[in-house]
Known about the structure:
Elements: E1 12-14, E2 21-24, H1 38-66, H2 78-95, E3 98-104, E4 107-114, E5 117-124, E6 128-135, H3 138-142, H4 146-152, E7 155-161, E8 167-173, H5 175-186, E9 203-207, E10 229-233, E11 236-241, H6 246-249, H7 253-276, H8 284-312, E12 314-320, E13 323-330, E14 333-340, E15 344-356, E16 359-368, E17 374-376, H9 382-395
Parallel strand pairs: 6-9
Antiparallel strand pairs: 1-2, 2-3, 3-4, 4-5, 6-7, 7-8, 10-11, 11-12, 12-13, 13-14, 15-16, 16-17
Helix pairs in contact: 1-2, 7-8
Amino acid sequence: MTSVTPLPPEVQCDTSFGGGAVYIFPRRDLGGFRWVGLAPIAGGCVALAFLAFWVWGFAGGMVQMFGPWGALSGLLILPGVAAAVGGVLLGGAISFGHAEIHVANGVIRYGERIGPIFWRKSVRRERIARLAVHSIPRNEQRAQAGLARRVAEMAALKAEVHQGKPRWLAIGYPEPWLKAVADQLAAEDALDVAAVAAPPLPVVLVESPVRFGAGDIDRFEKPAGSLVEHREIPGGFTLVVPALGVWRGSAGLFLFSLFWCGFMTLFTGGVGLSLLNGKMPAGGEVWNFAMVMAVFWAAGLGMLLAAINMGRRQAAIAVAGGQLKLIQLGLFGTKRREWLLEELATARIGKSGMEVNDVPVMQLHIVPRDGKPYSLLTGRDDEELEWIATLLRQAIPPQQGGGEQ
Length: 405
């Protein structure tokens, strides 16, 4: 086996796990702040209780009105239940959880364990391009105190894959611990004892700037797994940004819209059967109910179209001849924009206004010196957006006699 950094005593390794290994981290060192996790646990439990009482009354009324089909209205609470359960799991991870990484047969399974619950994901070894340990620069750590200092001393272990979003294997532990585990995972025969030997993975240490919102993060290397085509041309460069597809490109909106429209299909069918059986109320109540149904259908179809558009969008960016030109192709047509480079202040990533699991969905912002920013490439990987923004910023001439907008 390739020589690797020994594990610290705080990280346990069980090599009897199905021919592979299990790396078990301790609970994170949050001190008394770990009890902050009780707040989302309590909030999630209260939300679940409220949803239970609500669905009991609402679905009961719908059953009386439409018969057994009315019980389908109870499915409306599923997004709320998912959010409440997510809050409970998040709080449990903060107060009581710890990270685990399971390695066997060339597959890494990683996640949080809260007592008997192991919330995990997986990635195959051949998909990994490199392992990176991200930490906050030391000068930032010295400027912190209390909980902020504890957080600043934490690092994260990330697996960058050839195609797709990076996988965060463990978050919130000291850099030396994660570096040692990364060395173990990157060893030539550590991931598959019985399989054909694979080349070692590169392990890098990255000092990540502290970022709590939009900003100008310089990233000069193309991220591993990015499908953007970058070509140098005389006097500039071009970027061809392919579509991500509806599953990746819609940031979860496509799946949610399918659930919404599927539920509306079942519910509308149940209402139709009740109408045919003469169980629907007569008079204005029918029309009022029909208008409400139309609003729900419009919302579902609108989300579905928006998700398809996000997944099918393509873009081309060209910097040449002192100009920046953009072309975006989507479900609703083609958009073209162009500026003189001297008309631009900067390019950066920023929030799109959408969130997935309380995490902002980012996009690229082209910021002119006069006027509002122009946004595009919503939902692409943050690292890919940072790289594209860095390329554009390098091409924009600095302002004379003034600061950046």
